[in-house]
Amino acid sequence: MAIAKKPNRQQPGSAEQQASRFIEGAGKGAERARRAPTTLRFDPELLVRIDTAAKRRGISRSAWIQYTLSRALDEEGR
Amino acid sequence: MQAVVQNRRSLCYLLYITSPSYSMRLNSQQTPDTAMILTIGNVKGGVGKTTLAVNFAIARARQGRDVLLVDGDEQGTALTFTALREEMTGQTDYTAVALTGTAVRTQVLKLAPKYADIIIDVGGRDTGSFRAALTVTDTLLAPVQPRTFDVWAIDQVAALIAEARVINDRLQSFAVLNAADPTGRDNEEAAAALREHLGIQYLDCPLIRRKVFPNAAAQGKGILEYTPRDLKAIDELNTLMACVYQDDTGVKFNGYRKEA
């Protein structure tokens, strides 16, 4: 037999190709929106309380304020 | 306290055997001569993945099992720990390799018949290595610290699991609290948030943040080998392993067992 059979190539959508596409998708999530900087004035005592609360959760002051505000807004249904 | 710990272990097991993933596992065609593949991963860094992975590897090796530890993290901490372990104790008891990206899938598939246990330490963010591990692993264990950002990150893990299940239908996934607080309400609040996730099962076997973990690591040891023994930490680790591996061997063979 002088004519070789055509090698059976992987069809698109095979398990291996599906796995490859999934693996290659790493780190390609939606880019985070740019954050807008702002300045807020706080009473120093309130700032100390905020920093204490943030430290307890192991997050930064900015992250704690954002987290708390987003929760308050969720509760208000906005 | 003993009763509480025992009950928690029984509850974990009960939860597991009544879960769909258990019947899926019973029905799977996996042969017993293929390794049980466990991935310890999270898209969030600093949650204690490597600490758990090396302690799991040491514990399983001490049961006489042939263990392969795959370091899929770019930092290579598991591999560095293994080098330290060899230097300080003269042996490793398990085999460690570093793999990245697609190789995590291809090499693990090749190596699976040669080992009884494969433990993959991977993640820190959404990497190709993490995704590749999800396509071949039997179980994902995601350690989560009881902190707001850590709990938030589990959304992304759950989304990746859902996507990976299309390719790997055996994949079962657990979240567990790691480096949990000894007191306070944060553990319970984090647990409540984790229980809400449908794609990932919360295991109520928390590991409390204890100094024995870094102390043992600094000597190239797992907490089961470190003296003075921290019996509470050992009991927590055994309980978690019994839940993850759905057996009691972790309790029987790790060299420590409380009298019933």
Task: Describe this entry's structure for a reader.
The complex is a heterodimer of chains A (78) and B (260). Chain A has helices at residues 15-24, 44-57, 61-76. Chain A is built from 3 helices and no strands. Helices cover 51% and strands 0% of the residues of chain A. Chain A starts with 14 loop residues before the first helix and ends with a helix. Chain A has 78 residues and is an all-alpha fold. The mean pLDDT of chain A is 77. Residues 1-6, 9-31 and 248-260 of chain B have low confidence and may be disordered. A 7-stranded parallel sheet of chain B has the order 3-2-4-1-5-6-7, sandwiched between helices. With 260 residues, chain B is of the alpha/beta class. Chain B has helices at 2-17, 20-27, 49-62, 77-89, 102-111, 128-136, 148-167, 186-195, 212-218, 231-245, 249-253; strands at residues 36-42, 67-71, 95-98, 117-123, 139-144, 172-177, 201-203. In chain B, helix 3 crosses helix 4 (77-89). Classes of the chains: A mainly alpha (78), B alpha/beta (260). The A-B interface holds A 15, 18-20, 22-27, 29, 57-59, 63, 67 and B 101-102, 105, 125-128, 130-132, 134-135, 145, 147-149, 156, 163-164, 166-167, 186.
Number of beta-strand segments of chain A: 0
Give the overall pLDDT of chain B as a whole number: 85
Distance between the termini of chain A: 75 Å
Low-confidence stretches of chain A: none
* End-to-end CA span of chain B: 12 Å
- Average pLDDT rating of chain A: 77
DSSP strand tally of chain B:
7
Shape of chain B: globular
SSE ordering of chain B: HHEHEHEHEHEHEHEHHH
List the helices and strands of chain A in order. Answer: HHH
C-alpha-based Rg of chain A, rounded: 26 Å
Provide the structure class of chain B. Answer: alpha/beta
**Annotation field: number of helices of chain A:** 3
User: What about the largest sheet of chain A?
Assistant: none
